[in-house]
Amino acid sequence: MENVTPIRNIDSNIKPEQPAGGALPPGQPCNIEAEQALLGAIITNNDLFASISEIVQAEHFYDPVHRGIFQLLSDLINRNSYASTVTLQALADSVPGLSELGGGVYLAKLVASSTFIHASKDYAKEVYDLARRRSLIEFASQLTEKVRKPDAKTSVSDIIDDSEQTLYNLSEIGRLQTGFQPFLNATTSAVQLAKLATSRQSGLAGLPTGFTDLDNKLGGLHPSDLIIVAGRPSMGKTALATNIAFNVARNFNKFGATGDSSSSDGGHVGIFSLEMSSAQLAGRILSEDCRITTSELRRGRLAAADFKRYAESARRLHTLPLFIDDTPALSIAQLATRARRLKRMQDLHLLVVDYLQLVRPTSERNSVVHEVSEVSRGLKAIAKDLDIPVIAVSQLSRQVEQRDDKRPQLADLRDSGSIEQDADVVMFVYRQAYYEERKKPDEDDNEAMEKWSEKMNKILRKAEVIVSKQRHGPIGTVEMTFDASYTRFGNKALEGHSEDGIKSADFGS
Predict the structure, then answer these.
(1) Which residues pair with residue 352 across a beta bridge?
(2) How many CB atoms lie within 10 A of CB 377?
(3) Which of 58, 253, 321, 491 could be cross-linked to 71 through a Cys-Cys bond (beta carbons 3.0 to 4.6 Å apart)?
(4) What is the pTM of this model?
(5) Residue of 257, 268, 438, 265 lying closest to 349 (CA atoms)
(6) Which of 484, 491, 474 is nearest to 217 (CA)?
């Protein structure tokens, strides 16, 4: 910056404003000459603004007068008006402090200081980098204050999570905007996805769910997709999400078909279990694997051979790349922070959230609809940010029960239409047996009982996964099997499969 004429320094009579968060420590990093040269370059050549505005905004300038001048330049140029010393001088009174510096005379000095217009991007990056440094200093000051003054409502863990979120936001802001990309870049990415499908044993571009018919409908679970698995209570929505998560973790091969993990048919899975404890969730998975019902486990009715089989299942599965966080009442910001941490430390290929309505918004709102909307948008942002599929379990409203046909519809998504809007895939779990079981006739009515039993035998192990929305594929119903004893889904019985159709999704295989 030695070539920039210093026409004002930070000791001038107009002092930079302190942030709303409190006074900053003295000796703030800044470069007044770079700010002057950058403003002068834009005034000299308005065409520079398009590229400069992708790097800096008004708030990144340290000097409040410079901040006001940049905002004025932005307003004029964005409405296709020419910004020059003449047009700016007419509006000088709208920038606090500019008249004290001489108004038009100061603007002329800015133009004179822009000797090297070709270096304007370098000036912009310098201004931006210093602004981020000041943000870090402010963050450190506020963090020190929080730690020194304990708050009964805020734990140390909360402070750490919030701090990690703040630092992440600062790092994200530091990424330059990509803007438009050549079509060549997009086609290259599309070809890479197609190549990935051919390198996987499953032949799918996305992660296989472990259920053949469902994979045929979805093409697997795709990166950056938000997949909603919804249903009424006791339909098995948590079971389906857990089954998929287990299949993905079990099928992980870090070397893949081509020697790298990206072509593996499985991956590392993170589960946020906001309803069940990690022990309960693990117990359900072990029950599914070793074919011991959860009711037998709860009542302690295990023979020595059964317990041995249960322990053997735990020993065999304990190395699975499956990670469970059962912290209750997590906010969407905390959830995002922990997901990013897992991605960084262990890698992450699939995230499951059970369930959406139990995730808290970052800030309390007056409307439940707005809160759920913030959470659904946050989950979609996590999927895009981490480039992984996110499965979120969701409840349905009671209006389903008021219809003769109990099959769910998109309008039944509870609390917010934004769930439907944000989701790439919406799947409903429906089991007719759940409703028919509640229509059991009086046992003295032999004829009615016989008809009911005959109908129940036909539908008892049947389940439907209704794909009501798929942004990149067809919708329709996938018929599956469901074993209520082990809360386990399976493929529909096909030639060569076991009678209950669960063979291909057998957790013990």
Answers:
(1) 271, 391
(2) 17
(3) 58
(4) 0.70
(5) 268
(6) 474
Q: How far is residue 274 from each of residues 243, 282, 377, measured CA to CA in Å?
A: 17, 14, 18
Would the CA dihedral through 481, 235, 328, 391 be positive or negative? positive
Q: Residue 505's pLDDT band (boundaries 50, 70, 90)?
A: very low
pLDDT confidence of residue 88? 87
Distance, in Å, from the CA atom of 406 to the CA atom of 480, rounded to the nearest integer, reads 18
pLDDT higher than threshold 60 for residue 491 = yes
Q: What is the pLDDT of residues 438-472, one digit of tens each?
A: 878 887 778 888 888 888 888 888 899 999 999 98
- Contact partners, residue 100, CB within 8 Å, separation at least 6: 13, 14
Q: Which two tokens stand for residue 483?
A: 């074993």
Q: Of 58, 56, 21, 60, which is closest to residue 138 (Cα–Cα)?
A: 21
DSSP string spanning 341-383? HHHHHH--SEEEEE-GGGSBPSS--S-HHHHHHHHHHHHHHHH
Amino acid found at 394: S
Given strand 462-470, what is the order of strands in its sheet? Answer: 322-325, 269-273, 350-354, 390-395, 226-231, 425-430, 462-470, 476-483, 488-491
Q: Extract the tokens encoding 186.
A: 């997009």
Provide the 10 A C-beta neighbour count for residue 444. 7
Single-letter amino acid, residue 473: G
Find the length of the chain: 509
Distant-in-sequence, close-in-space partners of 372: CB < 8 Å, separation ≥ 6: 356, 357, 414, 415, 416, 418, 419
What is the model's pLDDT at position 416?
A: 64
pLDDT digit string (tens) for 12-64?
444 444 433 333 345 689 998 899 999 999 999 998 888 888 889 999 999 99
pLDDT tens profile 227-277:
999 988 888 899 999 999 999 998 887 666 555 666 678 899 999 999 888
Q: Are 323 and 270 in contact (CB under 8 A)?
A: yes
What whole-number distance in Å separates Cα of residue 384 and Cα of residue 401?
Answer: 35
* Contact (Cβ atoms closer than 8 angstroms) between residue 237 and residue 229: yes
The pLDDT-based confidence of 196 (bands split at 50, 70, 90) is low
The phi-psi region of residue 220 (left if phi > 0; otherwise alpha if psi is between -120 and 50; otherwise beta) is left
Contact yes or no for 349/267 (Cβ under 8 A): yes
Residue 97 has pLDDT above 90, yes or no: no
Which one, of 280, 307, 285, lies nearest residue 296 by Cα? 307
**Percent of the chain's residues with pLDDT above 70:** 83
Mean model confidence pLDDT for the chain: 81
One DSSP character per residue, 142-166 reads HHHHHHHS-BTTB-HHHHHHHHHHH
